[in-house]
Amino acid sequence: MRSRAAPPTARQRLVAFLEERTSFSVIFRALFMHQVPGFVNPLDYLGEATAFVFINQAVTGILLAMFYNASTTPVGHATAAYQSIQTIMTQVPLGWVLRGLHYWGANAMVVLVFAHMLRVFYVGAYKKPRELTWMFGVMLLGVVILFAFTGYLLPWDQQAYWATMVGTDMPSYVPFIGNWLLELARGGAWLSGATLTRFYAIHMLVLPLLLVGLLSVHLALVFRHGQSIAVEAEERGRRDERYRRTLVDFWPNTIAQMSVVVLVVALGLLLLTLLFKAPLLAPADPLNRAHYQPIPAWYFYSIYYVLDAVGRLFPMQAPILSPLVVIGLPLVGGIALLAMPWIDRSPSPEPAARPLFISGALVGVAALLVFTYLGNGLATGGVSNTVVARPSFAADIQPILSAKCYICHSGSSPSGGLDLTSYASAAKLHIWVPGNPQQSLLYEKITGAVPPRMPLGGPYLPPGAIQTIANWIKEGAPNN
Amino acid sequence: MKTCTRCGAAFDGEGEICPHCRRELDEVARWTPHPPAADALVSAAGAAPPPTRPAPAQAEADRQGEAPPVSEPGGDDDDPEGVSRRRFLTNTALTVGGVVGVGYLALGLRYLFPNVSAAATPLQDVGPVSAFPPMSPTLATIVQDGVQDGVYVVNLSNGSNPAPGQLLALDFHCTHLNCPVTWYPGVAGVGRYICPCHGSQFTIQGAHVAGPAPRPMFRHQVVIRNGRVLVGGIIS
Predict the structure, then answer these.
(1) Does A388 touch chain B if contact means CB atoms closer than 8 Å?
(2) Under CATH, which architecture does the B118-234 domain have?
(3) To pair with B15 at 20 to 30 A between CA atoms, which of A276, B59, B91, B96?
């Protein structure tokens, strides 16, 4: 009797149809059908997390582009670009969520790509045969930073305008072609509508193409070497039965683990978006009438701090050292990263076998974190915003004066004849009435009750610092 | 069953090497420009050289019983004198690719490069001379590329009739990293322009006195015409 096979289902027919025309099962099997070690360190998924954030950026970026208007044509008190972001934030349904996801995604991308790099560095995974995978990864880090830099300008608010003014001036320190690079970046002598369209085109066309190209090579290499791990694992599994039983199929086990990573990252972005609204400051004012103090994006805080420290420690050499910081530091850092597989020539990738490199990297990362933290202090005015109930002059008041007032109120001929560097010299002009802040010129000056408000030209003291000074006067302005 | 002398696998059939290795070596020989090297490879593996296929022209001639055409000079792959045909084709492709690529690059760069000469910014009226009192820099506004630019107009004379050289127009972007400077009258007894970013300071005439700025403030063209101050592009 002939056994009658059941007729193929529609799905089987579709698979067979595609298979016959594309041989896709070959690719599918090559990519997904192999065995991998059962335990995977979650840190090894940082690359996948970064890739997911990139997809988030692409989707939200395309949607934002549907409403964003890259134009500096004046609209009301601002520009068309600024107003379109305002519209996205306040009028377009869920616009603020999309911009939040894009904003936090951009920050997450910088963090994740860097963390991924550190992890790869730690396990020495840039060693032979993965040197090129590493180099493409470093180039991707560069592209991510350029993405962040070009995207930063688009809202055309004060922060965007002045941070980009400073950022685009940095290339002018490159020898010989500096000015040329600056004008090329800005499309003019200063920032203008030309800069905005230029940055928008780079952000929307050039960088995505570049990133997809580099990422394809990076991933192709990752897959190629991933295959070699699988081959090794399977070979070892053939000899070692116990080991073989710890292996799992890449599909669907690893894929499922990756989907958990995606979920965690997506929820994290959503949470940040809901808790902290993406900021939009006052519209850009090229004349800076409100005396906004330019500050960089947080990932440039470290270089911002080093620049400031160099200026304070070596005031005379600052004009020479400054270009070294602005151009030299990133250049040397970038080249060192690219060349890492050849700098670290220790044969073993084990962290314990490379004490010099691991400790060097630790020092580097620690310095980066500390400088970023200190740069954050600078960016917020270098003055604490916490109110001190019973302040001491030496511990609480003097630091505020030294950070914000010495620049003018010190030296041989201080502004207004007022020397604030010591209690005695400050007391000479009777700028406080012990117990009564409202009657004290010091308080009236920092609140603006008596113009001109201090610090002259701004940025003014944060409210917490003003309250601390008021409390100190209320306590009788003691010299403690 | 025999053992392949190349890969060590067991196989049935002719020769010293297995069919798999044979195919691979044939492949190598086909992609290797110099036949002797391919021969060496194969004989090292202990096998006869792969059969050479007759060139199409040769085959054609054979079939028609005619003498084969004389080969053109320099047209042969292994001609040691001239450039080989293969090399010539490769060089041609690379040159064409390079020239076209450089062409697009140059086109793009020239297209993107802006005209920022002083002449590109027309002189703009910023007010009567009397609006700029002696020795007190006043922020005026000009428009460049559609965006406002702050310029401190400085009257260095002691009246409202400054001679050439007694009227300056200083760009308010710091020469360190282009943050906007502010004129503070009382500072250091005589007044200073101070940059809020890294604390560079400049004198009333724009000379650099403190901080990381590498040069004096930028100067704009400035002229007085019919009692009004006109400011133009940057000259130094």
Answers:
(1) no
(2) 3-layer Sandwich (2.102)
(3) B59
A436 with A341, same domain: the answer is no
Cross-chain Cβ contact B186/A416 below 8 Å: yes
Q: A439 and A365: one domain?
A: no
Which CATH number belongs to the domain containing residue A230 in this structure?
1.20.810.10
User: CB of B173 within 8 A of CB of A186?
Assistant: no
Asked whether the beta carbons of A62 and A103 are under 8 A apart, the reply is no
- Structural domain includes residue A288: no
Mutate to test the interface with B, among A72, A166, A180 (most CBs of B within 10 A): A166
Residue A199: phi and psi, rounded to 5, are -65, -40
pTM, two decimals, is: 0.76
Kindly provide the ipTM of the predicted complex, given to two decimals.
0.75
Give the CA count within 13 Å in the CB-facing half-sphere of A276. Answer: 9
A458: nearest CA in chain B?
A: B196
Task: Write out chain A residues lying below 8 Å of B198, CB-based.
Answer: 307-308, 311, 318, 322
pLDDT confidence of residue A440 = 92
From A410, which residue of chain B is nearest by alpha-carbon distance? B188
Return the domain boundaries, chain B.
2-41, 118-234
DSSP H/E element including B168: strand B167-171
- Collapsed DSSP state (helix, strand, coil) of residue B231: strand
- CB of B194 within 8 Å of a chain A CB? The answer is yes
| Residue A168 Cα, gap to closest chain B Cα (Å) | 9
Range of the domain at A63: 24-283
CB contact under 8 A, A288 and B184: no
Tally of structural domains, chain A: 3
pLDDT tens digits, A264-315: 999 999 999 999 989 898 899 999 887 777 888 888 888 888 888 887 788 7
What pLDDT is stored for residue A261 in this prediction? 92
